[in-house]
Design goal:
single chain, alpha/beta, 3-stranded antiparallel beta sheet, 8 helices, 19% strand
Length: 234
């Protein structure tokens, strides 16, 4: 089944946030009921904050939820560009203060060195993922997998065995650590959260083509073994 068969279109962004929060909470609660714990991987950027604040108000057993990042900018954890800081300020409040956050940043070290330890931590504490929430840029990137970047050879290889990679984008600031396609495909449930007509246009362009180098999000859309639930509002 292709992800374009699961595009959920909401009249307002608030309606999207409510529905996505309920769906994510249901999946986390189900995972806790089945195995005692749940893992949630969230994305950074400008789209998630209001949704993450809404998700924090869902009444589930957050003490058994571990939260990680889809990608992180290699900046201090108190920097406004830090995805970890954004998650702490938006999701890790209300009921979700009880969740355990697993950061994707190590201070006083280089990203290309730290990625080995970060990958080990993710494998031991978060994988396989119960829920992954992806975003998408206007250029068709997702996580920190950017178009035409040399790191895409590994980042989009479903058989790479690599959980995360370090890279410096050509078209965006800061070195990054990013989950790979291989890692994200372990998710039981994966959502793509997009807002605004421009993002819908980009998504439709991605659905219509096959070149993953040009639009990395296509690697997640065009799979028969992976259903991406797309939540959209103008």
């Amino acid at each position: 089944m292709k992800s374009d068969t699961s595009l959920y279109h909401f009249d307002t962004r608030q309606a999207l946030h409510d529905a996505l929060a309920r769906s994510v909470a249901e999946q986390l609660a189900l995972a806790i009921a089945q195995k005692g714990t749940a893992s949630l991987m969230v994305s950074g950027g400008s789209t998630p904050p209001l949704f993450l604040e809404r998700l924090s108000k869902e009444l589930i057993d957050w003490s058994n939820v571990r939260v990680g990042l889809v990608d992180e900018r290699w900046v201090d954890e108190n920097d406004d560009e830090s995805n970890g800081k954004m998650v702490r300020q938006t999701l890790l409040q209300n009921y979700a203060t009880q969740a355990t956050f697993v950061p994707m940043y190590k201070s006083n070290t280089d990203a290309t060195v730290a990625v080995v330890e970060i990958e080990k931590t993710i494998k031991e504490t978060l994988m396989p993922f119960d829920v992954v929430i992806l975003g998408m840029g206007a250029d068709g990137h997702t996580a920190s997998l950017f178009p035409h970047h040399s790191a895409l050879d590994i980042g989009l290889d479903p058989h790479s065995q690599k959980v995360c990679i370090a890279l410096t984008p050509d078209t965006a600031p800061h070195t990054r650590i990013s989950l790979t396609l291989y890692a994200i495909l372990t998710a039981k449930v994966c959502y793509l959260h997009i807002e605004g007509e421009r993002k819908l246009t980009v998504y439709n362009q991605a659905v219509a083509g096959e070149d993953t180098t040009q639009m990395p999000i296509r690697a997640f859309i065009h799979r028969d073994d992976f259903l991406l639930r797309v939540y959209y509002a103008e």
